[in-house]
């Protein structure tokens, strides 16, 4: 190279990692530092100013009394406003009323026996709020539980009779005959039976053994799977009845449970009748109703983005009752709704139904609905990033008003050494913020100036997206509600409406496609207009990837832009599938069952009708979940090598049994055993047998078993709940009797009328109130909350590492075998086209189904963990106050990280392979040293929360700082760095051209920036989890380390002192 020739500048890429540091950092805003002076460009205003928005606001009209009352009521009280829920409530109320009315006719009462009331209990425990085939399957499972308990009880009775002393019966009869003389009769024998005169020690011991084994096994089964709770409860009741009365009765009475079975069968018949003739509903109808509920919530989330873009700076916060908290709660509730919908999908083919769409059509809709849900949750990531960006500037710091020149820099300059460093902040991050804040103040390019532009540019796309969701809701509502009317009432008119709905979906799809095309080709460039002057000519970046001006607000807007585009694309896919189904199914028809083999899966697999109103449960302490099992594959026993002979194998079995005995679920089963025997013994002692029988000690035994829970906090809440329920039931029962019967001995007509009245609040609470099964199945011990957080953090780390390994691996091969399942539902938007026009699935489609499934699982776990954290407040502590606010914040951060993971995964899917490959060496968060730091923090924090051990001080306090530290030392910042010939063409194509408006205008750059924003939001969240873990578990200091770290960092930065 001649001396006259100037070498080409080192190729560089603007690093969104650095531009988003303030948004992901918790540190306060600091004084600015010197920055290059650049002429301020003219900003073209395309949006409505904030002053106009606030000035045009009208005074809010006073709310009505009913509106104010609704605002104070819990959400479950308002479910009755839905018309479909009103019909279900009426049906369940009629079924419960009829079940109670069975005891009024004397003839029927004699048939049902002493347990006639059991029909009313069954009507509340298993209300008729399901489709017919779901109800039938639930009742079959319930009856199987009853039969299991009955069979075990009969076996106990047969064994006890064999052990009984046969002569004792005759001797006791002779003694009673002599004692009562001429008054001796069968009624005397029956009375003396319950006084314990016929008790036999050997027989009683046999009954006790059978009762103990049954209580232990059934208690253990209840902890294994919440879907088996109701069958195990009924089995437990049946065993309790036989083993409580069996020792008292001198002869076998195998039909003692007839009255319970007859009463339950009565209710089953009533339930079937009510479901079939009172507002009948198929599973197909229920699925469509649930899908509409999810779409309605998604519509509200999209509508909420209009309010987000119009917020003032002081309104961007996470306070209780703020817009952020409302949208976050709605987004988290969507996960549970989709889980309930997904549980119904495998059973759609098991029913007869009549309608336009069949089971296969709905199964095709489910993946696209899941994708739309995950993409819409990504919009919440923008709101989180926006709040972080505003908070990073300081609570008291607001941008200068337009036209106000920036103050001289020298008047604000404060040496770094004399400034206080906030927790989680570093001098390096403070210096970066100084430069950016000063530049934004000087040129008046804050996020407040870009939001009106973003709002105006995306208005058409947001409107088209919202219209598409509303059209889908309208179409599904029409399909769901007009399936019979098209033939029974105005058939021709309804058929015309069906064609009109089809046209509306097609038109909405066309409008959405046009809006997408217009925005991606033209409107999105509007965001770059304020930066036109700075991007007009090529520029270089420094060793940290910093351009000579601030791009923080622009990259925040990129996050909203990409998430909105991805949401619109997911909706586009949903509308295409729906429109294709409408064109294929031009009329309603009868759909016959096709998946009867799934009935067996319902008993033993993940599909069951007993999922209704049953909350998911978190793993028990020490239990292996999927993500922990992945790590357990590589875990070794540090105290012993694998067993090599029969003696060592036998010892290993003993060790495993001991490990099983100390598990919480095993301890819970033993507690059930102890409580059962303790409450059963008074019934089989002669001195207390009559008192226990007279005071209904059997039901005390049953309530003791059902009230007992795994952990103390749940135990307290269950006891309080049952105490309150008993008091409420007592007051309602007394009022029910006196309203219906006054002072008389009983009036069947008055009783029927008062029963109808007082069943209303009971049925309402059962259908819409908090689940009555929560206290039976879930545990919320504070220790469990802490360890469950550790397990959730490990699951999030597993998802994050899965995305990293996907990017780091060869794009032509799957990540690993377990993530290589075929994606049969891959849409056209997730495919790439070769030069020859061949349509081939992206390699990333191989892991997307697995990733989405795990995302939903972890999101469900986080939601349930939130409920557990609130329940854990019930548990008292003599050691000190429980820091529940920190645990609640942990759960909130974990939910935010899931939103960021969804955003990062979509970025990987949407980024073209050439960009992915080229940016592998340019992306800061793929630096191997940074990955080491991140995974180390993930592991150490989760291990600390799991074991309660303190964390060492030297662990990186800010992973964002480590990003820039490692990035400044990366090979691409060194003069001798060379690109391999293999990657030269790809890297050159993406990066070798100058950085200017054309580079920033590429769609891939916005996707790349959005992915980096998601990655650094994850790191910022992990930093906060790290700080909370140190607050909870403690920090091990290293004397002098912090002072030396600050001094070292200042010297490295060439400190300004």
Short overview:
With 1057 residues, the chain is mainly alpha-helical. The protein is 65% helix and 2% strand.
- Strand order in the sheet with the most strands: 1-2
Number of strands: 6
| Parts with pLDDT < 50 across at least 5 consecutive residues | 1-18, 21-60, 395-413, 599-627, 772-780, 810-843, 973-994
Q: Kindly provide the radius of gyration, computed on alpha-carbon positions and rounded to a whole number of angstroms.
A: 34 Å
Largest sheet: 2 strands, antiparallel
Number of helices: 43
Instruction: Return the structural class.
Output: mainly alpha
The quaternary structure here is single chain
| Nearest-integer average pLDDT | 76
Shape, per Cα inertia axes: globular
- Estimate the strand proportion: under 5%
Helix content: 55-70%
> Ends: how far apart?
42 Å
Helices and strands, with pairings:
Elements: H1 16-19, H2 21-24, H3 50-55, H4 65-72, H5 83-101, H6 106-112, H7 118-125, H8 132-163, H9 166-180, H10 186-193, H11 201-224, H12 229-245, H13 258-277, H14 283-309, H15 323-344, E1 353-355, H16 359-392, H17 409-412, H18 427-443, H19 447-457, H20 459-481, H21 485-488, H22 491-521, H23 532-535, H24 552-584, E2 589-591, H25 598-604, H26 626-632, H27 646-661, H28 664-684, H29 686-694, H30 697-707, H31 712-741, H32 748-768, H33 774-777, H34 782-808, E3 831-833, E4 839-841, H35 848-871, H36 884-910, H37 913-919, H38 928-947, E5 951-952, H39 959-968, H40 981-991, H41 997-1001, H42 1003-1033, E6 1035-1036, H43 1041-1052
Parallel strand pairs: 5-6
Antiparallel strand pairs: 1-2, 3-4
Helix pairs in contact: 5-7, 5-13, 5-32, 7-13, 8-11, 8-12, 8-13, 11-12, 11-28, 12-30, 14-15, 14-16, 14-20, 15-16, 15-35, 16-24, 16-36, 19-24, 20-22, 20-24, 22-24, 24-42, 28-30, 31-32, 34-35, 34-36, 34-38, 35-36, 36-42, 37-40, 38-39, 38-42
């Amino acid at each position: 190279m001649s001396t006259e020739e100037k070498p080409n500048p080192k190729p560089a890429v603007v690093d969104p990692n650095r531009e988003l540091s303030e948004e992901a950092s918790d540190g306060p805003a600091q004084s600015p530092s010197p920055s290059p002076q650049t002429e301020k460009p003219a900003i073209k205003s395309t949006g409505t100013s904030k002053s106009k928005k606030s000035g045009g606001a009208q005074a809010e009209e006073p709310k009505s009394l009913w509106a104010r009352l609704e605002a104070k009521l819990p959400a479950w009280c308002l479910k009755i406003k839905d018309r479909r829920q009103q019909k279900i409530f009426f049906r369940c109320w009629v079924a419960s009323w009829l079940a109670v009315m069975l005891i009024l006719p004397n003839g029927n009462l004699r048939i049902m026996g002493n347990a006639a009331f059991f029909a009313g209990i069954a009507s509340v425990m298993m209300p008729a709020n399901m489709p017919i085939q779901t109800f039938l399957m639930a009742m079959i499972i319930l009856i199987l539980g009853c039969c299991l308990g009955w069979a075990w009880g009969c076996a106990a009775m047969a064994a006890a009779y064999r052990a009984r002393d046969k002569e004792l019966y005759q001797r006791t009869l002779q003694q009673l005959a002599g004692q009562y003389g001429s008054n001796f009769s069968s009624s005397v024998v029956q009375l003396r039976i319950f006084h314990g005169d016929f008790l036999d020690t050997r027989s009683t011991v046999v009954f006790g053994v059978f009762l103990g084994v049954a209580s232990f096994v059934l208690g253990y089964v209840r902890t294994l799977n919440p879907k088996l709770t109701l069958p195990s409860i009924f089995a437990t009741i049946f065993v309790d009845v036989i083993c409580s009365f069996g020792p008292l009765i001198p002869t076998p009475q195998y039909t003692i449970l007839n009255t319970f079975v007859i009463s339950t069968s009565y209710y089953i018949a009533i339930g079937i009748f009510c479901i079939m003739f009172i507002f009948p509903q198929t599973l197909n109808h229920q699925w469509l109703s649930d899908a509409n509920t999810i779409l309605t919530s998604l519509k509200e989330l999209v509508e909420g983005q209009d309010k987000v873009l119009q917020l003032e700076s002081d309104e961007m916060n996470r306070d209780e009752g703020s817009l952020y908290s409302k949208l976050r709660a709605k987004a988290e509730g969507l996960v549970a709704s989709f889980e309930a919908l997904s549980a119904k999908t495998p059973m759609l083919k098991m029913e007869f139904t009549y309608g336009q769409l069949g089971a296969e059509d709905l199964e095709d809709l489910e993946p696209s609905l899941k994708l739309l849900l995950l993409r819409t949750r990504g919009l919440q990531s923008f709101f989180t990033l926006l709040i972080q960006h505003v908070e990073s500037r300081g609570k008291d710091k607001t941008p200068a008003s337009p036209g106000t020149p920036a103050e001289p820099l020298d008047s604000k300059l404060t040496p770094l050494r004399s400034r206080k460093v906030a927790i989680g902040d570093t001098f390096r991050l403070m210096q970066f913020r100084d430069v950016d804040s000063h530049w934004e103040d000087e040129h008046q390019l804050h996020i407040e100036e870009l939001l009106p532009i973003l709002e105006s540019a995306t208005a058409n796309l947001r409107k088209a997206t919202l219209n598409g969701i509303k059209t889908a809701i309208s179409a599904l509502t029409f399909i769901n509600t007009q399936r019979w009317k098209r033939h029974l009432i105005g058939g021709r008119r309804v058929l015309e409406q069906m064609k009109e709905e089809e046209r509306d979906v097609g038109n909405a799809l066309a409008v959405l496609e046009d809006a997408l095309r217009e925005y991606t080709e033209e409107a999105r460039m509007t965001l770059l207009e304020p930066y036109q002057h700075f991007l007009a000519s090529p520029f270089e970046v420094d060793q940290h990837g910093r351009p000579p001006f601030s791009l923080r607000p622009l990259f925040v807007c990129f996050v909203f832009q990409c998430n909105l585009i991805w949401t619109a694309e997911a909706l586009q896919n949903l509308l295409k599938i729906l429109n294709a189904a409408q064109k294929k199914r031009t009329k309603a028809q009868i759909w016959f069952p096709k998946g009867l083999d799934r009935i067996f899966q319902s008993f033993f697999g993940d599909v069951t009708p007993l999922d209704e109103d049953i909350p998911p449960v978190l793993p028990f302490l020490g239990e292996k979940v999927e993500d922990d099992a992945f790590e357990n594959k590589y875990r070794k026993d540090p105290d012993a090598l694998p067993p090599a002979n029969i003696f060592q194998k036998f010892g290993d079995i003993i060790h495993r049994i001991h490990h099983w005995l100390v598990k919480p679920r095993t301890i819970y089963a033993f507690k059930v055993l102890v409580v059962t025997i303790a409450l059963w013994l008074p019934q089989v002692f002669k001195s207390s047998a009559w008192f226990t029988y007279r005071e209904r000690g059997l039901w005390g035994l049953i309530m003791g078993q059902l009230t007992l829970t795994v952990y103390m906090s749940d135990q307290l809440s269950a006891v309080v709940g049952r105490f309150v329920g008993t008091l409420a039931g007592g007051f309602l029962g007394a009022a029910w009797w006196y309203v219906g019967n006054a002072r008389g001995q009983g009036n069947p007509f008055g009783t029927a009328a008062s029963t109808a009245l007082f069943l209303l609040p009971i049925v309402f609470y059962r259908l819409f109130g908090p689940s009555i099964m929560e206290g039976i199945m879930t545990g919320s011990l504070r220790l469990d909350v802490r360890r469950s957080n550790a397990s959730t953090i490990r699951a999030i780390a597993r998802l994050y590492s899965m995305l990293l390994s996907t990017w780091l691996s060869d794009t032509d091969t799957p990540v690993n075998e377990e993530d290589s399942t075929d994606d049969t539902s891959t849409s056209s938007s997730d495919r790439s086209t070769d030069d020859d026009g061949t349509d081939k699935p992206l390699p990333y489609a191989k892991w997307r189904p697995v990733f989405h499934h795990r995302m939903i699982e972890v999101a469900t776990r986080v939601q349930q963990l939130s409920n557990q954290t609130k329940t854990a407040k019930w548990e008292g502590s003599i050691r000190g106050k429980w820091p529940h606010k920190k645990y609640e914040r942990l759960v909130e951060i974990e939910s935010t990280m899931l939103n960021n993971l969804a955003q990062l995964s979509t970025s990987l899917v949407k980024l073209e392979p050439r960009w992915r490959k080229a940016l592998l060496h340019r992306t800061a968060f793929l630096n191997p040293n940074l990955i080491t730091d991140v995974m180390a923090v993930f592991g150490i924090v989760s291990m600390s929360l799991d074991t309660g051990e303190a964390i060492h001080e030297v662990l990186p306090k800010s992973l964002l700082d480590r990003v820039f530290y490692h990035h400044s030392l990366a090979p691409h910042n060194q003069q001798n760095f060379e690109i391999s010939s293999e990657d030269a063409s790809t890297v050159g194509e993406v990066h070798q051209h100058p950085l200017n408006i054309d580079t920033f205008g590429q769609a891939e750059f916005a996707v790349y920036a959005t992915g980096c924003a998601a990655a650094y939001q994850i790191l910022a969240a992990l930093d906060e989890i790290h700080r909370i873990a140190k607050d909870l578990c403690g920090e091990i200091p290293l004397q002098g380390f912090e002072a030396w770290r600050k001094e070292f960092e200042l010297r490295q930065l060439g400190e300004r002192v």
